[in-house]
Amino acid sequence: MTIAALATAPAAGAVGILRLSGPDALEVGRLLAPGVPARPTPRHAYLASFVDAEGRALDEGLFLYFRGPRSFTGEDVVELQAHGSPRLLRLLLARALEDARVRHAAPGEFTRRAFLNGRLDLTRAEAVADLVAADSEAAVRAAAAGLSGVLASRVQALEAPLRALHADMEGVLSFPDEAEGADEDVGPRVTALRAQAEALLAEAGRGRLVRRGARVALFGPVNAGKSTLFNRLVGEARALVDDEPGTTRDALEARVEWDGLAVTLFDTAGLRETPGRVEALGIARTRELLAGVDLAVLVLPPGVTRAEAAAWTRDAGGTPVLVVDGKCDVADASESPRRRVGGGAVEGGAADASESPRQRVSGGSAEGGAADASESPRQRVNGGAVEGGAADASESPRQRVSGLTGEGVDALRDDMLGRLWGGGTPSAVALVSERHADALRRASEALGRAERASRVSTLEVVSGEVGLALESLGEVSGTVVSEALLDAIFQRFCIGK
Ligand SMILES: Nc1nc2c(c(=O)[nH]1)N(C=O)[C@@H](CNc1ccc(C(=O)N[C@@H](CCC(=O)O)C(=O)O)cc1)CN2
Ligand SMILES: Nc1nc2c(ncn2[C@@H]2O[C@H](COP(=O)(O)OP(=O)(O)OP(=O)(O)O)[C@@H](O)[C@H]2O)c(=O)[nH]1
Ligand SMILES: [Mg+2]
């Protein structure tokens, strides 16, 4: 059956495309553009008049014919590239659909046909959807990598040796005499393949980050300078800042893009023991939010003890915590507890360093004097305390940062990206989706069982498990798929894709 749909968004634009795919694409396309020759040159752009049923011109546009299998879907494809009027395009589409040989395409059906006709494997087809949905540079680049086959070849690199292993074992089982010895190194081979499957599975977390963007929350005691730092990181004065503790009540969010990665940054209500009623609601919301982010950044004001820091860290629950020493432009408060923030300079953004003099108390620790965060921010171990203690996050070297002066902010951003990303660049990721991860998990579980069986059980059992692993892997590439799975996958595509 021939399918038709608009390939462009239903909005006014420079050009709008009606696309047909299937055995009757050319004939039906020519009903709309009768000036086009009966046997048009494939891939040639014809300037043609698009007409209604009475032959009256509706538009003048380009007509393209791709003869199967040399087309996106592998079938005959015709495109009418008209002026981008949604109303006009609906008229053209309606006219195509009047023909009994044509029906409207389901979501993703063009791509589904491309897959079914072997034009793309499943990972590439899904990368098409990822690309359309991408809303950060990293997401675009990762999807583009998927489209060019990065994930496909990683899966292939697993599938091929697994299939060879399976064949070797089946050979030994079927023809024990001829194939003697082919099963000698089954154990190590299974082990290696399992590790490979797990390495791929481990990229699912990154895939999630790229797809959805990372979520990062600033939290910590009241008045630590969270909102000021938030404004700095976002690049504009979004959050209210005041020297009154408890200024931020509701969590605030802003979306930024760092190294191409989409990051949703949250500023939260400061934590304290005895808040007022409304503030308590804000604090409850902070805790709730912290449980759901990818990284929690604990901003500490000067003079916080290690025990206090550890206690605040626990507020993040199971979420990874990055601890930073805020207001690093001020001397350590334990040295002069009453020292206030630079005079009247309250507003976050504008305040310049000269307004908040660097009142580093002499003798205020070795790193007091020349410290400039840009020098080597990561080496600076606060208080030198690294070992021991419960909450490890609060014990590791801390980033020193000042939202007011901007000191250490770039380094902090790099640290956050490092913690979220763990090295490498976002674009280099093989975009493993939840669906892929699920299949990979089942594959590596089967390989785990195969590994055990290779020590304690028969070759038959090992081979059976390897066969199961192959099936699960096949779901990733699409060598083994059910209609139901394809339905689920292509449902998330848009119509006309
Ligand atoms: N106008 C238009 N732009 C589009 C598409 C489209 O369908 N129409 N695409 C659709 O989503 C994407 C391009 N994808 C395509 C992929 C393969 C072929 C194709 O004709 N492949 C043949 C020939 C290859 C060749 O000659 O180099 C083939 O693979 O055999 C066309 C488009 C993005 N841009
Ligand atoms: N010297 C200095 N003062 C800062 C810095 N960051 C914030 N302040 C000041 O500290 C006070 C509190 O800053 P906020 O950013 O509102 O602190 P917060 O952590 O959001 O506070 P709550 O929302 O009440 O929890 C304000 O007077 C800021 O101007 C900093 O890096 N250095
Ligand atoms: Mg605040």
Q: Output the radius of gyration.
A: 30 Å
Uncertain residue ranges: 332-394
Question: Percentage of helical residues?
Answer: 40-55%
Structural class: alpha/beta
Ligand inventory reads: the ligand Nc1nc2c(c(=O)[nH]1)N(C=O)[C@@H](CNc1ccc(C(=O)N[C@@H](CCC(=O)O)C(=O)O)cc1)CN2, guanosine-5'-triphosphate, magnesium ion
Q: How many discrete domains?
A: 3
The CATH topology of the largest domain, please? Answer: Rossmann fold
Order of H and E elements: EEHEEEHEHHHHHHEHEEHEHEEHHHH
CATH class value of the largest domain: Alpha Beta
Shape designation: flat
Total helix count? Answer: 15
CATH level-two architecture of the largest domain: 3-Layer(aba) Sandwich
CATH superfamily of the largest domain: P-loop containing nucleotide triphosphate hydrolases
Distance between the termini: 17 Å
Query: How would you state the average pLDDT, rounded?
Result: 84
Adjacency order of strands in the biggest sheet: 3-4-5-2-1-6
What's the count of strands?
Answer: 12
* Fraction of residues in β-strands: 15-25%
Description:
40% of the residues lie in helices and 15% in strands. It contains 15 helices and 12 strands. A 6-stranded mixed beta sheet has the order 3-4-5-2-1-6, covered by helices on one side. α4 runs antiparallel to α5 (137-147). The two termini are 17 Å apart. The structure holds the ligand Nc1nc2c(c(=O)[nH]1)N(C=O)[C@@H](CNc1ccc(C(=O)N[C@@H](CCC(=O)O)C(=O)O)cc1)CN2, guanosine-5'-triphosphate and magnesium ion. Magnesium ion binds next to α9.
